[in-house]
Each structure stands twice: as structure tokens, then as C-alpha cells.
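RECORD TYPE: inverse folding
INPUT: C-alpha cells
STRUCTURE:
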């Protein structure tokens, strides 16, 4: 098995959206902040932001196929989001990819702070964030509605670079 972590390209976002849509359809990504599948128009818009470097994109590949991605939206601070193909979870890939992303973003001297918001029940994401050195900075109560209609608390995790 060939495994690689690398910076993403705009076209990777389109490829990755297909995996994400599968997880949304199978309801194995209940804490992703979209309950509807991504359209081609959504992903083209996303790819454009990557091209313009408003978003930096990082991916993990298995046998030359993108199976995981982290997006980093650049503003005053950097807001991160991630997901991995449901068939490749629980093998340490999320942890490896997030640590790699932190190392890469640290090279950009003007960036001072990484942030992500994670639903309090999303144990796997909390685990990988802590392993990559993120600390819990706060809690937003009833800030996230999952498609079962229930509201969940959101934890804000931060990492100073
Ligand atoms: C979050 C996600 C990226 C993690 O990726 P991953 O490659 O499975 O992560 P890792 O294998 O590196 O680590 C996950 C850890 O969480 C653990 N875990 C998974 N589900 C868990 C649960 N329900 N309760 C407790 N621990 C859990 C795993 O056992 C593993 O811990 P271990 O290494 O001690 O065994 C992946 O689960 C995912 O894509 N989820 C859906 C999308 C999502 O939630 N995105 C985040 C939005 S903020």
C-alpha cells in the first residue's frame, strides 16, 4: 500500500467531495456542518477558493487515491475542517494528516493561531485534535443542529503557532 500526505490541489476538492457525499448519504459523518450532499457548483466554488489561496487544502492518499482532507480557511486566524473516507477511519490516518497540516502551517510565519469547532459528541475528532496539540478554548452551547433535529454543544479548539 502506497501512503502519502501532501498539499492539495483544487481538483482534489472535487474528487474528495464524492467521498464526503458518500459519508453524508450513509450518515457516517453526522457532525459535518452540511446535511445535504455537495453539488458540483459547491465544489467548483470551493476549488476556486483553493486556487485563490483563501483556503489551503491538504490530503492523504492511499494508492494514489485521495481518501482524507483537511481544509484551512485563512483569515485573521486559521479555521480548520477535516474528514476521511469512511472505509479508512480508525487507522491513525486522521491523526497523521492533522499533525502534518500543523507542521506545514507553522512554516507560514504570519499565521499565529489555528482553530476548529467540534461537536461535543465527536469523540474521534476531539481525539485527533488533542493529539495534534489543540487545547479546548471554550464551548458554544446548542450551537450545532444535527439532522436528527437535536442541538449539540460545540467545543472550540485552538492551537497557537
Ligand atoms: C474525525 C476523523 C477525521 C478521524 O479520522 P481517523 O483517521 O479515523 O482518526 P484516527 O484513526 O487517527 O484516530 C481516531 C481515534 O478516535 C477513536 N474513536 C473513533 N470513534 C470513537 C468514538 N465514537 N468514541 C471514542 N473514540 C473514538 C479511534 O479509536 C481512534 O483512537 P485510537 O487511535 O486511540 O484507537 C474521522 O472519524 C471522520 O472523518 N469523521 C467524519 C467527519 C467528521 O466528523 N469531521 C470533523 C468535523 S469537526
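DESIGNED SEQUENCE:
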Amino acid at each position: 500500500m502506497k501512503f502519502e500526505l501532501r498539499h492539495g490541489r483544487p481538483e482534489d476538492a472535487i474528487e474528495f467531495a464524492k467521498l464526503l457525499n458518500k459519508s453524508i448519504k450513509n450518515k457516517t459523518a453526522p457532525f459535518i456542518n452540511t446535511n445535504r450532499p455537495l453539488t458540483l457548483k459547491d465544489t467548483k466554488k470551493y476549488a476556486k477558493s483553493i486556487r485563490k489561496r483563501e483556503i489551503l487544502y491538504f490530503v492523504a492518499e492511499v494508492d494514489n487515491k485521495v481518501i482524507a482532507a483537511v481544509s484551512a480557511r485563512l483569515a485573521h486566524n486559521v479555521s480548520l475542517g477535516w474528514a476521511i473516507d469512511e472505509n479508512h477511519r480508525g487507522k491513525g490516518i486522521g491523526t497523521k494528516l492533522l499533525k502534518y497540516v500543523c507542521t506545514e502551517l507553522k512554516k507560514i510565519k504570519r499565521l499565529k493561531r489555528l482553530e476548529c469547532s467540534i461537536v461535543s459528541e465527536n469523540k474521534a475528532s476531539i481525539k485527533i485534535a488533542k493529539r495534534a496539540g489543540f487545547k479546548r478554548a471554550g464551548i458554544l452551547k446548542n450551537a450545532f443542529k444535527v439532522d436528527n433535529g437535536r442541538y449539540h454543544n460545540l467545543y472550540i479548539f485552538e492551537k497557537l503557532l
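NOTES: Residues 30 and 146 are 6 Å apart (CA to CA).
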